[in-house]
Amino acid sequence: MNAPRPVKLEAKAVRLAFYNERMKRQLPVLGGIDLSVHEGELVAIVGPSGCGKSTFLAAVDGLVKLTGGEIVVDGKAVTAPGPDRAMVFQQDSLFPWRTVSRNVMYGLELQNRLSKAQIRERAAALVDLVGLSGFAEHYPHELSGGMRQRVNIARALATDPELLLLDEPFAALDAQTREFMQVELLKILSRAGKTALFVTHQIDEAIFLANRVAVFSARPARIKEVIAIDLPAQRSLEVKFQPRFRELQDHIWRLIYEESASGGMAMAG
Amino acid sequence: MTVTPADDDLIPASDDAGAPAAVASRWKRNENFVLGTLAVIAFLLFWECSVLFGWINPLFTSSPSRIWAAGYEMFRDGSIYPDLAVSAEEFVLGYGLAVIVGVPLGILMGWYSRLNAVLDPFVNALYATPRIALMPLIIIWFGIDLSAKIAIIFLSTVFPILVNTMTGVRTMERDFVKVARSFGASDGQLFKTVALPSSVPNLLTGLRLGLGHALIGIVVGEMYGASAGIGFMMQTAGATFQTDKVMVGILIIAAAGMSLTQVLKMIEARFDVWRPDHHV
Q1: Of B182, B189, B274, which has the smallest distance from its Cβ to A81's Cβ?
Q2: Quick check: B258 contacting A, CB < 8 Å?
Q3: Residue in chain A nearest B177 by alpha carbon
Q4: Prediction ipTM score
Q5: How confident is the model over A207-259, as pLDDT tens digits?
Q6: How far is the C-alpha of B98 from the C-alpha of B234, rounded, in Å?
Q7: Looking at the whole model, is its pTM more than 0.80?
Q8: Which of A159, A162, A87 is nearest to A123 (CA)?
Q9: HEC sequence for A8-36
């Protein structure tokens, strides 16, 4: 395959437990995650629902504290959110009182390292990059779901992060828009040259987008298997009809199904 | 002749099919306004005629023409201006003070849960009590001059403003907090970029509710004990059976309430640009 590239993100035995008020005890969510992501790579995370995929992403972003292990980005341990990482949230997370361009400027305004003119210039360039030229002065409620997710991606790219974290960004879109946005995301990422970690509950989305797919086990989550996606690097939607795509889909579906079943039994017992 | 749709605005509709349609659509647009105006005119006519034909005694009801004459006279000889000035001063000072205290305190109580815990019992108790009930106490503390009126208007107004502002800050969306934190926002930045803007709609609602309470405060405060003001004028006119003058006072208060509410609605409309579902 590709020549080995430097490691961008390394998760070492990451453990995380939340205190559950009702059950009055620690509830383990992540049970020792080991995962590395190389520069320029897109790694997708799938797993049974409620397994802690999004929690892992929040941990990489620095929004939640680990109870064990360590997350290292570019050789530095993550303790809090930082400009080297940016999160693309679900669509409701755009600020409704800010226009498209002011939503995109948000991260840069907080950082306060560029001048106002530079921030405006960069926001305009990003609005163009995600294909929203002409909508810069619109408010989020005036946009379609797909357009809002483009703004969301632009907002995350604005601070020029090393690592882009995407938390089920297309979950709320209809099937057609979602496929379209998947193709668009690959274009945007290759133009921006970013490394990305993508959480989804859709197996076909994971295979289509990713260089590798990490399958999480049921809670407390561990990596059950990491599958290298040996499909052509230049993806178009036709790839979904290839027999190899179907094989990968089948394989991952079985892995998740096993986990959902055992998770269910564990809960019953 | 043939008229293309694009020319519709420029060429007056001259063919017969177009004219009734235009009249119909104009009627549709203005239907509510026309019906409302007609109803008011009919009511005023009925009122005037009832007095004219001796069905009712104008000593109790006055009549539109008498109210108009009384109002005209009060403005012409200038006897109303001192009362207007006093009431306006009370309103500006009482309402202004309520905004100056209510908005920041509401924001602080929404932001710091400890402060909220300490002040909540007092705010709750006072908000639930009709502030008019405090009037005897206020007279004891402030007498019957300007400061008593400012106090009652302030107390009437400050709680709706405070409570609504606080609710706005406390109910800010958790997702927005997460976004701000993810971009590395400090507490101050989170406050400025998320808490403040998301509390604006509630704050404006509080200001509008406070307005109504302030007008009640003016009238009741002045009726309780005063030497000038619109409420005082109405009280003395009422005690001497000058129904026309009482009615003029009512109209002035109503007009003030409606126009101030309109101003606040226009301010709210500015924020409706990003709130498509919240038209008042």
Answers
A1: B182
A2: no
A3: A93
A4: 0.86
A5: 999 999 999 998 899 999 999 999 887 788 888 899 999 999 999 999 999 88
A6: 26
A7: no
A8: A159
A9: EEEEEEEEEEEEECCCCEEEEEEEEEEEE
